[in-house]
Each structure stands twice: as structure tokens, then as C-alpha cells.
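dude i think i finally got it to work??
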Amino acid sequence: MRVGVTISDYLTGVFAAQAALGALYARDAHRSGKGAVIDASLYGSVMRILEWTLPAYEKLGLLRTREGNRLANSAPIDNYPTADGKFVCIVAGGQANFARLCKAMDRVDLLDDPRFTKLADRAAHNDEINAIVSEWTSSLPATEVEERCIATDVPVATAYTAADIFANEHFLARGDLITVDDPVAGPLRQQAPYPRRVGEPVPVPSGAPRLGEHTDEVLTELLGLSPDDIRALRDEGVV
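look at this
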């Protein structure tokens, strides 16, 4: 399914920042004094995280298509509905995690079912095993599904809304939410910078400046223009 946020934009920014740091290190460590031009296309960042999609096609002729929240070669993995109208993401395709999930569901008998004995078997019977897990999650509220999975070390997460994030004690304790004083909108509670350095206070960035807010500073400090120079530019409509 299409990701609901502009992930290509964010990914490209992260990759471009890493490339810029690499270029700076190469310039300084090798003492070449040479800079670099970084080619960071939006599609390129997404293509880079396609895992084995391209080599599988080139070597095996395997053409991956849309799979929703599942994986064709692994099961059970999906976003499963719960009794209270939420969804939980459970990842239990590996043998150890599948055994733990069977324990959480009180269905250790599934381990002896020939349809689900090995990962390849479960992948071949993807619909059946996912239906069994879905039936179990649908009988319980999301919190209880999470508790049972966590008790048996099964990777699990409830699909959160913004309201859930604001109320979550874990996020609050880790400082994942900060208040930024925006010059236009006022105080805004939003995501904290990520990643952060251990042992240091959570940095709080300033809000985006108003248009032209720092024009005089830039012209004076960076370009060395005098107040008269800047006034003349304003009179001419340049700034």
C-alpha cells in the first residue's frame, strides 16, 4: 500500500545529508580541499531501500508485486484487527518468533501442523496462518494482544494515531515530543529532533523564521553591506 507520508522526500534528505558529511570528511581527511556535487534524486532514495527486489528479478526472474502489509515469502506477518477496533502489527515469520506467537495464542498445536512447520510451509499457506492469527487478535483488545506478545518476546506494535502518541508514557518519558515556539502559529507540540545524543538534553529548534526576518543580518554580517546600502536596495525593490 502507498505510504501515507512523503517518504521519498524525507529519505532523500537523510541520504543527501549523509552524502554531504561523507564529502566533507573526504575533503578534510584526505586534505584534498575539493568539494563534491551530490546527485540525490527522489526516486533514487526509494529505489535504494527495495531490498532484494532488483537482483531477484535479474537473477531469478522473480517479479515482486503489491503485497499489502504481508510478505509473499514469510508468514505470519500482517496488521491484524482487534476487538476494540484497532490494529496490531505482528511480525512472526521466523521460526523462533512463530513458536513464541503460538505460545502467546495458546496454540502450540500449530507447531505440529504440516502446513506451518517451516517458514516455506507457512509462506505457501499464507492466507490460512494469517487468518488464524487474525481470528485470535479479533477476540481481544489491542492492549491484551500486545501484553501477550510482549510476554513471549513476539515483535508487536499497535497502530497509533496522533492522539495515542500524545498520551503514550514511553514517548513522553523519552522526550520524543517538544514544544517549538513558532513565530506565526505560536507554541506547537511536535516531534523532537531525531536521532539524539545520549546524555544530552533534547534539543529544541526554533520555529521557521518569517519571510525576510534575517535579511538585514545576512546582508550585514555575510555581505558586509552598510545600513545605507541596505536602505538603497530596499528603495530599489531588490530586498
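The first strand starts at residue 77 and ends at 81.
im so relieved honestly
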